[in-house]
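For homework, think about our next protein:
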Amino acid sequence: MTTPGQPTGAPGADPLITAGITAGPGGVMTVEVGVITGDLTLRTTWDGHQVLLDVQYDGADEWYTVEGSPLPAPDKASVLAVHEAMTAAMERGGGTGAPAQS
């Protein structure tokens, strides 16, 4: 079990995973099942060019793709930035999808 709010893994090597994120009101929008709420886990995977954001209910087996994912990510620093932005967006809720890139 990971500490809530603290990612495990290393950008580019293993997926970044943060468990124990309580979704804010309105939850997180997924491709497969629409909005999910409650205590969630975020997984951010990088293929060297883009990041894929997936969420699951804490302790569940099924992963769901976050609406708007994948996002461009040219380097490891951007992977961590996307992961942190998505974590914050999940905590805000509002049916959030992948964070907008600047």
Remarks:
- The mean pLDDT is 89.
- The longest strand covers residues 39-46.
